[in-house]
Structure formats: C-alpha cells, structure tokens
C-alpha cells in the first residue's frame, strides 16, 4: 500500500491566477449577494415564524425533543440502575462538600436535588451528573467565610463570662451569602448563554483547568485538616491565606484532639482499602459498591452507640432538619460584594461541565449545545439559589458512574434526585451523630484523582514547554492568590502566551521542492531549492498591530536587503553615473576641438574605465560581460588593433549586456513574495505596513507580490483602501507557485526588453568610437 501511494502522481495544467483573474474565473459574489436586505429578511422571518418558533422552543427546552421518543423498555431499567447508583453517591458527597463550602451538611443535599431537576428540562448532555463539586465548594467556602467570619458572630457566655461563636446566626448568614452568590452566578451564565457566549469556555485550556483543579485540591486538603485533627485554626482570607492557614494548623498540632484523629485515621485506612478493593473487583461487578455511603452509615452507627460526641467530644454533624425548606428571595444587597466571585464560579463551573459533556457526547455520538448548556447550568444555579442551594456543576466521579452503569438519558438524573429527596424527607435525622471527621476523610480520599494530575508536569515537559509554564503559573497563582484571584491571573497569563506567540512567530524563507509546486522552509529541509532572484517570505502567525513592525524587520533580515542603506547606495550610484556621463560628454567635446589627437592608436587611452575599455597587447579591447554583474575584465572581447575594428561575434554576445556592464547598480533579488496563507485577518496597522513594504522596495527596483490570501483577508484589504493604481489585485496570487511563475516570466520579459535597450545604447557607442577611430 505504501509503495502504491509513493507512485501516485498527478499533473495539472492551468493558467497563472492572480486575484483579479481568480475573481473573473470564480465569479465572486458581491456583498448584496451574500447579505440580504432588511426587507427580504423581514419577509422571510414572517414567512418562517411558526417553524422558527417551534425550533426555538425545542432548542430552549430539549426535553420536549427527546422525552416523547423515550423508550421505557430500552432505556428505563438502565437509567433507573444508574440513577440509584449516582443518588447513593450524592448523599456522602453532598454532606461532605457542604463542609468545604462552610455550610451545614443538609444544604449540600439541597444542592444535589433542585439543580438536578432543573437540568433535566434544559440540559443537552445525557451523561453528566449535576450537583456539588469540590472546586466550586471551596470557592463558595472562601466567599462565605470572608463575608461571615467567626469573629463577626461572637457572643458572651453568661455562665463563665467568655465569648463563643453564635453558630446558628453564623450559619444562617452564610447560607444567605452562598445563595446570593449562586443566584448571581446563575444569572451571569444565563445571560452569557442567551448572547451565544458559550465559546468563553474555550479560553480555559486543558492545562489551565487541570492545574486549577489540582491547586484547588490543595485548598480542600488544608480546609479539611481542622476536622481531621480536631483543631480550630484561625480563618484567613485573601492572598497567601493558604500559607497562613497551613502555618496555623501546624502550630496547633500539639493540641490535636486524639479521639478525632483516631476516627479520622481508622476511617481513612478503611476507606482507602475498600476503594482499592472496589477498583480491583469493578470489572466483575455490575455496579460499583458505594463505599462512601457504607463508611457514613458505619461511622454514624459507631458514633451513635459509642456516644463519641458525649464521651469523647468528637464533633458531629448535629441537627439535620427533615423536610424541604420553602423558597426565599436572596439578599440582593450582597450582590455587589460577590460580583467577582460569582463570575469566577460561573466560568469555572461551565468549563468543567462543558468539557465533561463534550467528552461523553463524542464517545456516544450525540451533540452537546454549548450555549444551551450554559443556559441550563445557569438556570440550575439561579433557581437552586432560591432554595438555599450553592453553586453546582458536573462531577467527574458521579458522571463516570452514571455512564459506566448504563445511563442513557437525563432520566438517570431524575432517579438520583429521588434518592436524595427520600433521604432529606425521611432519613436526614439519622445522620445527626455522623462525625465530621468521617466527612472530611471522604473529601480527602476523593481528591486522589486530582492529586494524580501532578503527572501532567512530566507529560507537558515532553510535549509543550509553553503549556507546562501555563500549568505551573496557574498552580502557583491559585495556591498563593486564592481561587478567585488565581483564576483571573491564570487566564490573563494564558492569553498573554497566545499574544506573545503571535507577536514572536517563526519567520522563514521558502524554497521549492523539486518537481512539485510545494514550498517549504529552506533552513529545515535539505532538498528544498531556493528560486534564483525570488525570496518567498512567510510568517507563522497573522500579521497585526502587535507584530507588524517585527514582520518588516524580519523581512529585511531574511531577504538581506537593508532598504535605507540600499536607497542611499542607489542614489550614490546614480550620481556617480551622472558624473561619468558628464565626463564623457566633456571628453567628446574635446575630441571635436581642432588639434585633438587620438591617443587610442598607441594604446594609451585616458580614463579607459569610464569608457568601458581595457588594454590587451598593443590594441584596445571593449569588454562585454557574459552575465549581469560579471567581474570587470571577464567576458567576451573584440580587438580593435590599429584602429581597425574586427567585430566578428557581436549578435548573441551583445544580448548579454546588462545594467552592470553600463556601470549601473543591480541586486541579486528582483522579487519578494509574501506568503499570507497563515493570516485569517488583517488590521489597519498591518495594511499600512504592507503598503510601506511595496513602496520601500519599489525604491530599489524589487517587486513585491502577495500569495495565499484568504477571501476574508482580501475583503479587509479592499475595505482598508489597500489597492491603488500602483498596487492592484494583479499583485495578489492564489498560491505561492502562481506568484513564482509570474515573477520568473515577468522578470524574463523585462530583462529581454532592458537587454535590447542596452544593446542599442552600447551599439551606438561602439559605432561612435569606430567612426572616430
């Protein structure tokens, strides 16, 4: 097969196409052809109002599209099994992640219920599980503890005249802060989705997201240390809060509550061992064993019957109200204080959800609408905020369970929500004696996957140093600047890397692959040949205001032509030529004066170089170079002995006369082709720069051409008044090969015309000299 591919060839014969000829051949459409008038658009909208309205409703409510086609026999049982499995995971994760958000555990269960039901109606992904997530929980926790710190809720203890924290008032206000932040973040997501801003998630590259979640895992670990060791460190906010918190926890280690540490250690060992066993047996099990739920149940039973809270003062979850709380309007006065945090939550939550959604959609062959996903996630958060939920997004672990256990549609989410609902209504009070240390251990163990992302450093070191720098900067900034400022710094740095890469692209001179129309970098390919007299210049990035000046400097460097110096040199040569012509005229006048003696007979000619003569033996010789710019004295010559001309081989030899033989200046490069195939836009600064290139190089008689321009670039050149009488569309070519063929053909024709003109001039001079001799 490989040999047949090597033998495959093709041959195309066509005319050389410049932009003007290409438009004639292809019949390029005008602006009126591609853009309808307002009247026509209004008529079409009226004519298609009903179908468009129906399609718009279907797009806004995807459930109306897939639910009527839902087959209970095909999808009912897989969705039910998957939903139960995911619902069981919701319970421990919801309560554990609520601690990360510094909220009572029941609000983690609320966040696993309402948003899931909202997403059922508006979401387009069939496999992601909406609910609490580690990173968002930490981000919410940083907001709640910043606006509702413990020191703001101290009260006097009447018995021993000491201060203590009013936990009920503190938690109540933290719930208000979390709900307001969630509603605002949801509204931001909805607005972005309605204005088709779903592509915003693309600015969060994979290395950035993975580094951000890895750093967030470090924040989660530090936040759980107080529950694992049973200490009460001071809560810090703002930049370097992680460092200060970790330092304070280390200073409190001598005060570790030993019963709490024992509970944490036993729970961690058993949970890790059970999870490893579960992973080993997972290929043989139809559904994974819910080890977190088993750990919670076991921890609750042991705590309840051993009276850990009473006998050993082990901190427990406490009262969990049964039933659903009524909806309430969030405190809008908090919006101003949490605007930045809400925007960060909106972007991070969407980026995580859309990346998971597209992964599963690609695997199972369906499409996920990024804008609709943004709206669905926004409505899940905005509506959930009215029911005291905090920000949610999809979870990798739960989504994998939903997909691997056979989930087919969003009905699996409804089944999981029913499990959470039953727990809230009937089973919630049973977990009141659950130690908080067990929940902290669940969070700690579930972060194992994020800690594995440190292997990205070695992978990126081999694949892309720039992505590695983005990863490291994101990780460091998120650790030191906290989650909100760290995200802003990370996105800014990632965008700067793109700007730097476009501002400092790779510039190359192209050559031809022999026997083909392909042109590659001369410095990187041995068999590529440079076109004589033609320089093909290409930039690996679009030319725009940030790199336009660098583009011009690189062009001068690669072509070897310093325009300013060469213009000065040209002017000097022109002035020198004029002086020679004036001397020749004065000499001719002196020759016409009476008494002037021809010194050429005896071979002593004065100022021979200016006349184009040299000596050979006892006669005079006129030198005709065989090629442009040939060294002086080399070429074909004719004897003029004793004043008798023997012009035996003028003809073809005189056709080789060039500007160099007449003492005029010339360069090795006569044409430069700018390969703009990499450009997808061009701004006014770049247009002005390219105009200047045309004008400057024309001063030294070097022709400039452009090749490979996309249609959008040509339109922008037209709008920017690039074309004129001196720069026409004849200077633009469909490909580099077209431009090269035109340059060679055009230069050859000009060279022949110039040669004939020079031959005529030289012949006249020869005749004048022969007559005088």
TrEMBL record:
Residues 579-589 have a biased composition (Basic residues). GO terms for molecular function: secondary active sulfate transmembrane transporter activity. The chain crosses the membrane at residues 97-122, 128-148, 177-199, 256-273, 285-307, 342-362, 374-397, 409-427, 434-451, 471-500. It is a multi-pass membrane protein. CDD domains: STAS_SulP_like_sulfate_transporter. Coiled coil: none annotated. Keywords: Membrane, Transmembrane, Transmembrane helix. Residues 524-743 form the STAS domain. Residues 590-612 have a biased composition (Basic and acidic residues). InterPro entries: S04_transporter_CS, SLC26A/SulP_dom, SLC26A/SulP_fam, STAS_dom, STAS_dom_sf. Residues 579-612 are annotated as: Disordered. The keyword Membrane applies. It is found in: Membrane. One of its GO terms (cellular component) is membrane. Pfam families: STAS, Sulfate_transp. NCBIfam families: sulP. This is Solute carrier family 26 member 6, like 1. It comes from Scophthalmus maximus. The gene is slc26a6l1.
